[in-house]
Amino acid sequence: MRTLDAVIIAKGGSVRVPRKNLVDIGGKPLVAWSILQALAARQITRVWVSTDDDEIADVAESYGARIIMRPDWMNNTHTGGVPYIHALMGIRERYETDLAMIMFPTNPLRLPGDLDRLVDTYNAMPQELTNKSAFFAVSRPSIELFRDIGNGRFDAGRGVWDKTAKYIELVPGTNIQSLDETIKWDRIYCAYWGIEWPTDEVLDKLINEGEENLYPLQHRAWTPMQWWQQGDIDYPFQVDHIRDVWEKFMPKEIV
Q1: Long-range contacts of 116-122 (CB under 8 A, 24+ apart)
Q2: How many whole angstroms separate alpha carbon 72 and alpha carbon 136?
């Protein structure tokens, strides 16, 4: 079995929902659920929490996660991608590892077995593919389409319902990829878009400076989830929504 590190991204300075990652969901801090779900997955080797907050670090450690404290230069202003790459670089310096999974606590509605199914989906992708990843998604039976009439407008009176059931909607919050490819392609993406990495010593080490200059195709696979598992916390009203969904749908034995 390949080695897999799960990295949970949990900063302290949430703006729209203050202290979001510590809000109570189902009797536990929000961040605790992602930790427990990752620890329960049979194919995840190590579980990490990347944070800039001492309280979150203490809570995460009490639930069994390993802690990666972010450097001062991140200054609580960076989105999940920067802390994630920073964490992976540190992990790769200490361990031999194959795969990496990013997890956001803001989508805690993962059922037992979901994470292992996601790993199985990734492992089933053809070995010869590069830059591949696997996500959760919800299958949609229909989608409403509108005609673009130009000048930034669409024809609202002539919507078309496509009922072919060929559409999926990605569920945010979790995906898996090769650790080395994650680091490699992130650097290529940054070069393509002209983005300069905020950097410290760890981000200057061990980066594969590939010769690729083109924006690459990412091969993606998906694992089905239930429709109600799409819940995500980004605004205050969504906290109550997640609590309601949790009460109605999550198995009571995991609380």
Answers
A1: 116/41, 116/42, 116/43, 117/223, 118/174, 118/175, 118/176, 118/223, 119/4, 119/41, 119/43, 119/44, 119/176, 120/43, 120/223, 121/221, 121/222, 121/223, 122/176, 122/177, 122/221
A2: 33
In this prediction the pTM is 0.87
- In sequence order, the 6+-apart residues with CB closer than 8 A to the CB of 141 are 163, 165
Query: Of 152-156, 168-172, 189-193, which range is least confident?
Result: 189-193
Give the three-state DSSP class for 70.
Answer: coil
Instruction: Give the contacts of 168 (CB within 8 A, at least 6 positions apart).
Output: 137, 138, 139, 140, 222
Give the whole-angstrom CA distance, residue 8 versus residue 77.
17
Domain boundaries, the chain: 4-254
- Beta bridge partners, 69, equal 51
Give Rg (Cα) of the chain: 19
What are the φ/ψ torsions at residue 224 (nearest 5 degrees)? -70, 145
Q: Write down the pLDDT at residue 178.
A: 96
Which 3 state secondary structure label does DSSP give 149? strand
pLDDT category of residue 78 using cuts at 50, 70 and 90: low
Q: Does domain 4-254 have CATH number 3.90.550.10?
A: yes
Q: What is the β-pairing status of strands 167-178 and 132-140? A: antiparallel
pLDDT in tens, 19-34: 999 999 999 999 999 9
Q: How far apart are CA 40 and CA 58, in angstroms?
A: 20
